[in-house]
């Protein structure tokens, strides 16, 4: 009965953007997959009894947990990205080589 009711939690992902317990198991081990299943099921139960505000607060917290490390990484890598951009646009090997081909045509 439980598998019929919550079967989508235990299936393979359908699209590229689906996050499933299988992906959590691959990245972080079996325990993380179990935790993801629990979070999915708890979200379904809490949302079904009218706890939408609790779910939205949880989603906001999860988004912050994703956003903060990415923002830090962007700041730390911005100098490297600038150097690579300058190397690409000033190098005869990359960008200028393509410009010469287009102007010669």
Automatic annotation (TrEMBL):
Superkingdom of source: Bacteria
Membrane topology reported for the UniProt record: Multi-pass membrane protein
Subcellular location: Cell membrane
A GO molecular-function descriptor: amino acid:sodium symporter activity
GO CC entries: plasma membrane
Stored Pfam families: Na_Ala_symp (PF01235)
Segments traversing the membrane: 38-56, 62-79
Keywords: Cell membrane, Membrane, Symport, Transmembrane, Transmembrane helix, Transport
Family: Belongs to the alanine or glycine:cation symporter (AGCS) (TC 2.A.25) family.
Protein name: Sodium:alanine symporter
